[in-house]
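Progress report, Aim 2. The chain analyzed during this reporting quarter is listed below.
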Amino acid sequence: MLTNSLVELDRQHLVHPVSSFRGHEARGVRVLRSASGATVTDAEGRELIDGFAGLWCVNAGYGHESVVEAAADQMRKLPYATGYFDLGAEAPIRLAAELAERSPGDLNHIYFSLGGSDAVDSTIRFIRYYWHAKGQPQRDQFISVEQGYHGSTTMGAGLTALPGFHEGFGVPYQWQHKISSHYIYRNALKTEQEIIDASVAELKAKVAAIGEDKVAAFYVEPIQGSGGVLVPPKGWIKAMRDACAEMDILFVADEVITGFGRTGPLFASEEEGIVPDLMTTAKGLTSGYVPMGAVFMRDHVYETIAEGAGAKAVGHGFTYSAHPVSAAVALEVLRLYEGGLLENGRKAGARLMAGLETLRDHPLVGDVRGRGMLAAVELVTDKEKKTPLPAAVQPATRLFDRAWEQGLIVRSFAQGIFGYAPPLCCTEAEIDAIVERTRTVLDLTLEDPEIRAVLA
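Predicted structure tokens for the chain:
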């Protein structure tokens, strides 16, 4: 009865993010009640492995009492402190120092936001300020990559290159430009070096077309998450970063998803051997326990803004920037990562990738890709032609539902792609169960009459 009541209250009052309002009303909400480790329990007592860590974010796993205690202790001592008026609190100060110490290169200056979208939004404002301070206010054009996702604020959605975040809103995005994704599986080029060379050439051509003196920055995810977990060729990120340096364009690494152990190291940029001019993080920063995001700035970016502002305030801030409770949680989560979770995540990630690779023999599996605890399985009806699942079968909803029925939560993309981002605390048995349950879902999908009708 309680669940039924909640479903009805949800229908009547709660607006869900990135959802079909009418579709959600028809389907109703699935209420989650509790969670521990890598497992969540719904309101009916059903246990499921969370193969997506909430929304790519519960990297440390659920139920860490030390994180709960860190939040409670901070709430008791100082539940809120503004960063305005030159005020502050110990937790965010220490967190900024800890992050700067661990970040690539000289990303020594940390601005705290409320999450990933407004972290990206903040970079846009800081970058505009930067170029104004350098006497180049005409640099107001931004470039990102097709299939990329950079948030759902109005400015971040402009950088986002997924049509669903633009359609129907009528917002003009003349300042935002895109180049093609590397998307290896569906790239017409034959070798990874050809893809790298083509991307660099396209970026340079795009800059030339816009005007090199007008381009402010280039944004990219080390691995494109919401576009379908698209892993670039080895060396692609560095080549793009080098091209930006050559053209004097700021390079922004969006590590909202890839940060904090998701791909193996603390930050994916380390693995790529690059130092971005700015870097955004969120999600794994607090393991999703409380909202928080962060913008990392290199010394030259910070110093340029500081010199440009002089004695004037840099007019950008949020009420909850550098929230002490969020910072206390992030400090404890960072301790957990370095206390064994990063290492466990690396081992679990290797096991996950090896397990998913065994699915390549399935008639519906066209591609398996990923790095660490971030992976995807792309489904097709014709392996040779790489034909996607037909849109008419509503792959996102149908595949998600089938996985749920098998006790597994994964991201299901509209193109017929399973996305995986399990908590770093997963045991070997849980990783194996994710793979086994995925195979069961594939077998059930293979028997779907609408799928069989279009199979090669």
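The CA atoms of residues 144 and 219 lie 5 Å apart. DSSP finds 15 helices and 16 strands in the chain. These observations will guide the mutagenesis work planned for the next reporting period.
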